[in-house]
Write a structure and sequence with these properties.
2 copies of one chain form a homodimer. Chain A has about 325 residues and is α/β, with parallel strands linked by helices. The first copy, chain A, is built from 14 helices and 7 strands.
């Protein structure tokens, strides 16, 4: 934090947002914590933030564990900084240690940007946020958007359900693969063809890299397309040596232009807002149902369910009419 | 299917359930398909089924890819068959090919039980069921319970969010590890200590197996416990050679007794029904919100959201009061 900043009044939500918008790091961290903790006054805060959002580009980066996503994200961030852009990185790992995903590089990574006010890095954990991780991630991105970051890089490990939900908030999704990720059939099976906007075959010095690039290119070529179809470019990258990253950036830029020109940006925004409203109502529903079961009639209903005197569909009707 | 069975009247839900309860395989398959497809008449069907449920034991089997879960499940099924129990296996893989999870063994596995009316095997896929996989799985288990299977084995790959949701429906969770799964710290980080009722260190002929057993045993020993606490047994198994499976079975049996004696079975049932009611209402909410956005006022609301004239919290209020 720079020396000139006055300590913001962190109790007053309005002042907190103002301080964050003025670039105060403490205010930003506080707001993000509020999102993570699902604070009671969150709805009001987020509602107020929306007016300041919609300016940032959101890029999603996904791929199997060990593909070198973190290094690539770091390289992309460095290039964006060179171009004078303010960059935020959100690393999400909803999966277990067993799937190999781990945002271990975080502390190390952060060091390379130490003292750079134009970079903000935040990891989002997984435990204790059952079902709510994708929603919390979306709202963290929202806060960063309102905090005037130009590009927000959202990195997720793997492509499970939570990850797919999270990637929906990105306008451009970069799928990072390595030759060992398996063949293109697996890419199709994993549903990556549907979510990818740009492919990066990383660690491209390894054998089989060219084969993977060829296979992916062939698959992209087989897509039934017209003039409004985006055909995903396939890039070879070697993030550790900063090879191919500029070309990747160029493709991302082109994809962002494509979204604007074709009107797909608005389509994406519509989908995003639909999901956002649904998420808000789902969270509220969950609270309502839990409270209903705390009451004595709720407890009685549970007993009837266990004794099979009623069924959950009937119980759902009763609960929702209370 | 045995020759004596008459073709059931599959159009009439009541008859369909009757046929399934009488052991008709075609009726069973049809009912499960209805659950997978979220059929319109599902609520009525499921509601009617509940009266016939609550008899089956549900065992969850989870662990990292490559731990040999499928083989172990197969061995457990074989032992249960020897004891005269009817067994259903539900294999769920919500993760991508990249995490290594794959229910590829299914076809092969099924062959070893060909012609055995006492075994039913079903895989549940992942695509096209965003967010609904755990709910669908629960209802499939319900159908199998009503179909009078004594034990239902639910196998999931990995321990992501969807898997954890699915495991909640099991009374006994067996966590299968292999020496290479990593150390016990990872087991703790993955939240496996919270969900495991029995540990199986599989492929126990490998080096490091004893070390893993020791570590797990130490960790279990560190649990703060009283007479009502279940301390998870740690077993060495070699599923391919059928080694240690009887001992594992014995621990599962003891755990089932423990649930009854301590009243934890009822606690689990209460939690299950709470979640079930919430799932039903969440699914309904999702349909309501989607329909609301299809109307002209819904479309107008979306435009206002995109133009930041309103925010999703405000929109959620409007939608829920329509």
């Amino acid at each position: 934090m720079s020396q000139e900043q006055n300590p913001p009044n962190l109790k007053d939500p309005k002042k907190l947002v103002e301080a964050m918008r003025a670039g105060n790091r403490m205010a930003l961290a506080r707001l993000i914590s509020k999102v993570e903790n699902r604070d009671a006054d969150l709805a009001k805060l987020i509602a107020d933030l929306y007016a300041h959002t919609g300016q940032a580009q959101v890029w999603g980066i996904t791929g199997p564990p060990g593909a070198g996503k973190s290094t690539l994200v770091d390289r992309l961030a460095a290039q964006l900084r060179k171009a004078g852009k303010r960059v935020a990185i959100v690393a999400v790992d909803p999966s277990s240690p067993f799937t190999g995903g781990a945002i271990l590089g975080d502390r190390i990574r952060m060091q390379s940007h130490t003292g750079d006010e134009g970079v903000y890095i935040r990891s989002l954990g997984t435990r204790g946020k059952h079902g709510g991780l994708s929603h919390a991630t979306k709202e963290v991105v929202l806060v960063l958007d309102a905090a005037k970051f130009d590009v927000i890089l959202v990195e997720t490990a793997g492509v499970g359900q939570t990850e797919l939900d999270i990637l929906k908030l990105a306008q451009t999704v970069i799928v990072v693969l390595v030759p060992e990720s398996g063949d293109s059939i697996q890419v199709m099976k994993a549903g990556l063809m549907e979510i990818a906007d740009v492919f990066a075959v990383n660690k491209s010095d390894r054998p089989e890299a060219d084969k993977m690039v060829r296979e992916l290119t062939t698959m992209v070529g087989m897509i039934d397309h017209d003039e409004k179809t985006w055909l995903m470019p396939v890039h070879k990258t070697e993030a550790v040596r900063d090879v191919g990253v500029s070309e990747l950036m160029e493709s991302i830029r082109k994809h962002q232009d494509h979204l604007t020109v074709t009107g797909k940006r608005t389509e994406k925004a519509r989908r995003f807002f639909k999901n956002e409203v649904l998420d808000i109502l789902t969270e509220k529903l969950s609270q309502t149902v839990n409270s209903a079961f705390e009451t004595s009639s709720g407890q009685e209903l549970l007993s009837q369910l266990i004794e099979r005197k009623t069924d959950p569909y009937e119980a759902a009707k009763i609960i929702s009419h209370q």
